[in-house]
Write the structure tokens for this entry.
Amino acid sequence: MVHVRSMLCIALAAILMALPAMASEGDSYPLRAFYPEVPYITTEQLLDDYFSTRVVDIRSRFEYDVARINRAFLLPLNDPAFPEKLERLRPKDDPTPLIFYCNGHTCAKSYQAAQLAISLGFTDVYVYDGGIFDWILAAPDKATLMGETPARPNRIISDRQFNERLHDYTTFAKEAEAGNSIVIDIRDPFQREDVPKLPHIRNIPLDSLMELVVSRIWTEKKLLFFDAVGKQVRWLQYFLESYGYFDYAFLDGGILSIADQEDKLKPTIETNRSISSNQGMLLTITNDERLNNSDRKALSFLLANVKFNNYIVVSLKKIDAAGISKPLILGSIRKLSKLGYAMHQVIQDTLIVQMDPRLAWKGTTNTKAWKDTVKEFSEAVGK
């Protein structure tokens, strides 16, 4: 499934990513002071109540596949249907404790999820801010790490092991020039405002990359990975280690580390790629009686803002500046998503929409990339 995230790297880092690091009992819990209205539960308490709670993992599918609490339900915080799915998981007035967790003591996503649940009217809401790695250390028999249960704590990648794989940009660029190197951009398409001035970069988002990593086709190559802010690569390291990759490195800090250095970046060029639409699909949406003229007006605005492939990324301020009703746009996109024509979410002040590729595709249709995206989109919306 293609996951929708913000193109704004800094906002993405603040909302969706937190450094997965081992935590010890002596560590503090700095976020508790910032979320005093959110009650927390300790590792000991969760162990005592393990079978009488609803534990919710609000991280990404990729993080969940690496490590998780065994009884946890996966419900990413950035899921557009988060409120509805949460209520199906546990009704608002159900007294069963509802516990959110993510990556550890400094991961704010669990607090944000708990805060959202409370604001939606859910009761008995808690956060487990020890996170997944505290849990593995305390209860390996109730955890999974890289597909293994009980989890083996000695397989947790330490800060030292991760830091050994980090290259500054100068070293990273030098390695990229070597003949045996492959440079891989694991960012999602809508994050690629700029790319480094490096040779032969391959754009392979994490979901697609995993199939190639598992196949072990690159074990004889020097692999150089970069992401938006240097967080996703740490989860990737688990798969690289598990499947026998020894010669690899990550760009320290991701693209964000060189964001203010124009001599090292070049913009993504999309000017010669027009928007293509499948005529049959256009006819279908035109004749869909569940949509009104306002919905079609909103659709026209969205199609004019396709950024990459079938992604639309537009600032809510731009909607206001265009003289278009923000409530109209948001109401219509919710309807389009409900009907399976799109998937969307709003992160901070940015609207992220993934359209059905048959409705909007920046480039040539009927290619392998287009067909793969149609398949992924259809699976994601349940078509």
